[in-house]
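Fig. S4 source data, part A: sequence.
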Amino acid sequence: MQPVASRRGRARVFVFSLSLAVAWVAVLVPAGAACAQGCTSDVNGDGLVDGTDLATLLSEWGTCPASVTSVAPAQGSVLGGTVITITGTGLAATSSVTVGGVPCTAVTVLSPTRVLATTPPGVAGEAAVAVTTPAGTSLAATPFTYALQSVTSIVPSSGAYGGGTPITITGQYLAGTTSVTVGGVPATNLVVVNSTTVTAVTPPGSVGAAEVVVTGAKGAVVVPAGFNYFAIITPSWATLIEALPDPAVVTDANLRAAFAATGFAWRVRDNVTNIEMLLIPPGTFNMGCSASNAYSCTFSETPVHSVTLTSAFYMGRYEVTQAQWQARMGSNPSFFTSASGQVSAAQVPNRPVERVSWDMIAGTGGFLSGTGLRLPTEAEWEYACRAGTTTAFHGFAGYLGGTNDDTLVGNIAWYSSNSSSQTRPVGGKLANGFGLHDMLGNVFEWVNDWYLSNYYASSPVSNPMGPAAGSYRVWRGGSWNYDTNSVRSSARLWDIPNWTSSGIGFRVARNPL
């Protein structure tokens, strides 16, 4: 046993320490001052700040309960695995965290105010978050929400049964996606863009609806009939080059889906003339001068009016070349048939044919006779040229919405400022949104329509064919020897059907069936 004197000594030390504490309180907060401040130190409310108040404080000596002010993120997958950050006070001694009554894993105390934890699996809906310390268990003010992994859209939702359709899948909790199957067959080129977006390329399948399954760290999501396979039709008059639009050429995903929805092959070659042609989907646009550049709209381009083309059609990817004309007609009427400082002898055959009249093209015995090809209508031509734009000049890479800036025309057209007074081989400038080249510049292009000055005021809303008769035929698009006033999507010129010029050529069109 310890000597009594020692126990008495410790008692005297405690009493002495308590006395010092009371004296400290008295010195720190004199009673009068405390009362003057509203007696904030008067714990028991007796009007005095004294040893009784200190005794009350000492009786409650110990660890304060934790307080949770926020949990982030406030939502996660029902499969668990979400790392949450708990913020509050008194968290230094955290021993466990539960969500919906189930313990979290990997609980890590970062500081007295921050704790990390990994959520357990749960049931969809709200679940309480609780933090336990030696002082007890505290609940977060707001619950954690368990959510299901989901797919909200697949774009496009249809494509060729031969596969090869690029699709974009959007939803939530897709970051850990490891596979996408369509009709039970794995898709290729899987790319996890972020937690809400995944891209892939469809595999071959059978015509009809196919189930899409997205599988990953958060489980599997099944989308019944999420993708529809259909047959791509190659016209009997053509040879298939490319069934679906090349995303590098047709960059708009919605436009690619519109192409696919027609059921026709995107890129083909005419068997008779070897002319490469691109599919143009049906659609509605505003025809006429809807925007101005450095020049004003002319009377022949007004009024602006809505036009709907109800059927898909094919359009020559390029203007008809001298070689293509020579192969079919046996002669070459063009002016620019020799090499120059800008065009080599080998490139000359790929210059556009010019000095061809409307009659030489579409008249009896003309280039189009017996081919099934035709000249586009004026509405088809402008729709194909604009490719969804409403500006003076059609769009191109970097300016897909089009432009009214004359200084940018050199990106898409050979015209008076950059042509060196001659035509150039077709395809030398950037394509528009449909993948067509030289719609503006190089040479004007004859279209099928007769010209009538006030035709726009009474033009049919759907599939206008132009006036029934007239004295002049229309040509569109500008040429190597004209300025930007004529190199506009809406600009129109016209002349007698047998007129020829070194600045006028043409482009072909054809119905799919």
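Fig. S4 source data, part B ends here. Residues 4-59 form one domain.
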